[in-house]
Amino acid sequence: MTTYPQRVAANILPLSVAGTLPDAFGEWYFTDNIEDHEIANEDCELCDQEQLRYHFEIKNRRTNHHLWVGSSCILKFQVQVFENGILLDAKGSKKKLNELKQKMRLDSCVKSLRNLAETEDNVILNNALDFYLKNKYLTPKFAFVVFWRLSSNNIDHSPSFFKVSLKNDKYKQDLTQMDESRVHLIWPALTSSQRKLAIQYGHSEPDNT
Ligand SMILES: [Zn+2]
User: Fold this and answer.
1) Domain boundary, last residue among 88, 115, 150
2) CA of residue 52 to ligand 1 center, whole Å
3) Which residues crowd ion ligand 1, with CB under 5 Å?
4) What domain of life (predicted)?
5) How deeply is 150 buried, as exposed, middle or buried, from its count of CB atoms within 10 A (0-12, 13-18, 19+)?
């Protein structure tokens, strides 16, 4: 059985000029290429960790080899991350990678919504899509209709990627008055503080979360 550092070294050293870690990582940078595989089933080619949904490409500037890895490995091994040609520090790198992940999540939600709006030519669903494109969140009522219709049509989607807003009183009121079963349907999209609010409004937590 090999240890984690041994696995990383075995994967990266043959593709690098430097013969030891961490020197070899100095040759590597994040190319800004990312891929959403839609299901969390991919390996990190650096540490062999499995069940990644997102791949980030890193490249060696001396050997031109490249690897598809998880974002946590980029941060852990301080692979260089650039923004407009400027090298980012650890904090900046983390921020950039998080923003890229958020962007992929948003794109994935938009894709599901477009698919839904095309499948059912329905004014509410078209409005939900326009609303999401404009605001990057759904109202509780939109969220219920969207999740219900996405499931009915067997359209692939990740409920937890959708953002629901409770920032105005109307949305809070709508959530309060919503049927328990509908609240449970949108539950995966609620943040932990929104879930606490829902409970405060008299709703119960779904059984299997
Ligand atoms: Zn990894």
Assistant:
1) 88
2) 9
3) 44, 46-47, 49, 70, 73
4) Bacteria
5) buried
Residues 134, 73, single domain; the answer is no
Last residue of a domain, one of 88, 113, 144: 88
Domain extent, residue 46, equals: 4-88
191 Cα: distance to centroid of ligand 1 (angstroms): 27
Q: Which residues contact 54 (CB under 8 A, 6 or more apart)?
A: 34, 35, 36, 37, 70, 71, 101, 104
For the stretch 1-34, pLDDT in tens is 678 888 999 999 999 999 999 999 999 999 999 9
pLDDT tens sequence across 118-132: 999 899 999 999 999
Burial of residue 99 (CB within 10 Å: 0-12, 13-18, 19+) is: exposed
39 plus 64 within the same structural domain: yes
Domain count, the chain: 2
